[in-house]
Amino acid sequence: xxxxxxxxxxxxxxxxxxxxxxxxxxxxxxxxxxxxxxxxxxxxxxxxxxxxxxxxxxxxxxxxxxxxxxxxxxxxxxxxxxxxxxxxxxxxxxxxxxxxxxxxxxxxxxxxxxxxxxxxxxxxxxxxxxxxxxxxxxxxxxxxxxxxxxxxxxxxxxxxxxxxxxxxxxxxxxxxxxxxxxxxxxxx
Length: 188
Description:
The chain is mostly helical.
């Protein structure tokens, strides 16, 4: 009798286990189907969109300047996102102005007469970034560090200067630029 009860108990556990297993598989399939439907309805990347950022009203000017100066337009857009968050009237605590946050001296050297003129600001900023890319043999990290801290600081250290702000700046621009589909939060 005890063997019979034991057998019934084991077969009951087996049925319960089978039921649980079927339920788990059903839930996994439902979840998989749900995720597939989400992927199918996910918005596709639009022209001018940088790794999840909405296209801006400045994309045409950025693309033209980037092409003219031989710089990747997505890198420029990532830099603008960090510099000014696409605010053409932005002014930093140090006095940098416009979308690409040009300092007055640098702007003058680049032929920019009005840093708040979007076209001049973009062309001047992209020109300056292109200069840094050439100076540092195409090394984006060093060119961005030079854009932020000045080429002298990068040359002095032979690398991204050990300045917390500059290191964070380079990392942030590159995170936008290299984000791909990693889900980086572009609203931050």
